[in-house]
Design a protein that fits this description.
Length: 541
């Protein structure tokens, strides 16, 4: 079968869950026997998400092949249960960068290089490359932002050109928001009608409209929307708010969204819908009643008056997956590490948690608070899982308070520390000096060898694992022997670089720090073993 392309664009406003719709539809198509991949297009100029503040943009998701992408790629991985590679992610900056590079390389053979068609053609090229690479039957392409924005117009132009190129192989879906104003009490379709007009202005007609709303769209509104939007009433799909995003594929299946897509391409399903494993997983979510209380200590929580947790999306999902698999309902508590610096007596709140996670981070703000929290977990035997910075801080804490290396630190915080137990990775010094920050961290999957008899080895059940990374600093091997002598267990090491990847403590219910980001590999149907080990320990507390 030739590749089929489905563009997913947004209407009315952003943040309504286009990524979830895309990912959930992907799962439905997989369940009918097809190979599916998903692409994310982000309209900003940044070449990747690596240089963006997570409070503004959400989590930076890292692919196996070391790209720093939008968090939606993580959603695709979790729903499709597959690794998504760098070819599946593009930004305006990235697209322009390669057009300009090609021009410099005389690849346009002396032609005037123009915004149209050369930029949309580059977009199409990339989409086709991703389709080919994944050998996908269906390629879902989510265009960031909403129709009518100046920023994503070139991507909509690519969709239009692609439809001209392959009329039978391209469809588009408008995911649009339907407000239910409190004063009116009725779902309003007008903003979506306008979004459809704008989409038409860009030369695209939606084949389907997904109605995102607090409520399920009813028949009169479906008919109204269909009439004003040139779509068949059967092609208006309701997507009301649900308590877990993992229910969305089931919601789509009830409305035969998958079949309707297939019919629109003239394709027959290859198998009877295979969502039973997915349903079982959703069943576990619903049946989990008793709570396990996990505190997440971090700093990327608030912007203005709002508290956001998107910065730690994959960490949250990984905790959820592991908890559900144990029949537990995770209760996440956000703990701001800066508070512990101002008032150390607040640390006591940690003992009300069943377990503590400290996720990745950068810079000095709140770091001493994290180190104090780790000390509290170590001394009071509260299960602790440290991810990346959370591992580095655990090493610092151990060095200072157990190995008695006063003033031990990472050179990220204090370049002149007497005991740089965490220091720059080889080769990073020059990069930092040149301000060469973009895409230059140690990124992507690397191997890690696990030591026998350790908590990590037991959790993984394997001696050799691969995990994803995103860091500029590392454990300083000059301190390895000294810290080990003081009782620190080095349970995982990268065999090629002899880089310490996992540390843990003995005589503690669970105290593990990892230099990598296991959260990126956790899937709802396949929770990550370290998170499972951690949650089990938390349940025992
Ligand atoms: N700031 C640390 C480093 O660069 C940790 C990074 C992280 O937590 N992702 O090594």
């Amino acid at each position: 079968m030739s590749h089929k392309y489905i563009f997913v664009v947004g209407g009315v406003m952003s943040g309504v869950g286009k990524g979830t719709v895309t990912a959930a539809l992907g799962r439905v198509l997989i369940s009918k026997g097809f190979k599916v991949t998903a692409i994310k297009i982000d309209p900003y100029i940044n070449v990747d998400a690596g240089t963006m503040n997570p409070v503004e943009h959400g989590e930076v998701f890292v692919t196996v092949d070391g790209d720093e992408t939008d968090q939606d790629i993580g959603n695709y991985e979790r729903f499709l249960d597959a690794n998504i590679l760098s070819v599946n992610y593009m930004t305006t900056g990235r697209v322009y960068q390669s057009v300009i590079q090609r021009e410099r390389n005389l690849e346009y053979e002396g032609k005037t290089v123009q915004v149209v068609p050369h930029v949309p053609n580059e977009v199409i090229d990339r989409i086709e490359r991703a389709a080919h690479h994944a050998e996908a039957d269906f390629v879902l392409i989510e265009v960031g932002g909403t129709v009518g924005e100046y920023e994503n117009i070139l991507f909509l132009e690519a969709a239009r050109l692609m439809r001209m190129k392959y009329p039978d192989q391209v469809r588009s879906i408008l995911v649009s928001y339907m407000p239910v104003p409190a004063a009116v009490g009725e779902m309003k379709t007008k903003p979506t009608q306008q979004a459809v007009r704008m989409m038409m202005g860009a030369g695209l007609t939606p084949d389907f409209v997904v109605a995102r709303s607090a409520l399920h769209i009813d028949k009169p509104r479906i008919e109204k929307l269909a009439m004003f939007s040139n779509v068949h009433a059967d092609h208006v799909i309701g997507s009301p708010d649900v308590d877990s995003i993992y229910k969305v594929p089931l919601l789509f299946e009830e409305q035969k969204f998958g079949e309707k897509i297939l019919w629109s391409f003239g394709v027959e399903p290859r198998q009877k819908t295979g969502l039973s494993k997915w349903k079982q997983m959703v069943g576990r979510i619903e049946n989990a009643k008793s709570e396990v209380k996990i505190g997440v200590v971090g700093k990327y929580f608030s912007t203005g008056d709002f508290t956001l947790s998107d910065a730690y999306l994959s960490v949250i999902e990984a905790i959820k997956h592991a908890s559900w698999a144990q029949g537990k309902k995770p209760k996440l508590v956000w703990l701001n590490s800066e508070e512990y610096e101002k008032s150390p007596s607040k640390l006591k709140e940690l003992s009300q948690m069943d377990g503590i996670v400290i996720p990745g981070g950068f810079g000095s703000r709140g770091v001493e608070g994290k180190i104090s929290a780790i000390r509290y977990c170590r001394e009071k035997k509260i299960p602790y899982l440290g991810l990346c910075y959370g591992m580095q801080c655990a090493v610092i804490e151990f060095a200072r308070n157990v190995a008695k290396l006063k003033d031990a630190n990472t050179t990220e915080i204090n370049e002149k520390t007497q005991h740089p137990v965490i220091h720059l990775l080889p080769g990073q010094e020059e990069l930092v000096k040149d301000k060469s920050y973009g895409g230059t961290l140690r990124l992507g999957a690397y191997e890690c060898k696990l030591a026998a008899g350790t908590v990590a080895r037991k959790a993984y059940g394997n001696a050799l694992i691969e995990e994803r990374h995103r860091h500029r600093y590392e454990f300083n091997n000059e301190y390895r022997a000294r810290l080990q002598k003081a009782g620190l267990v080095v349970s995982g090491v990268n065999p090629d670089q002899d880089l310490v990847e996992i540390i843990e403590l003995k005589n503690h219910p669970f105290f593990v720090g990892v230099q990598f980001h296991p959260e990126f590999q956790s899937r709802p149907m396949n929770p990550h073993p370290l998170f499972v080990g951690f949650v089990k320990a938390a349940m025992r507390k």
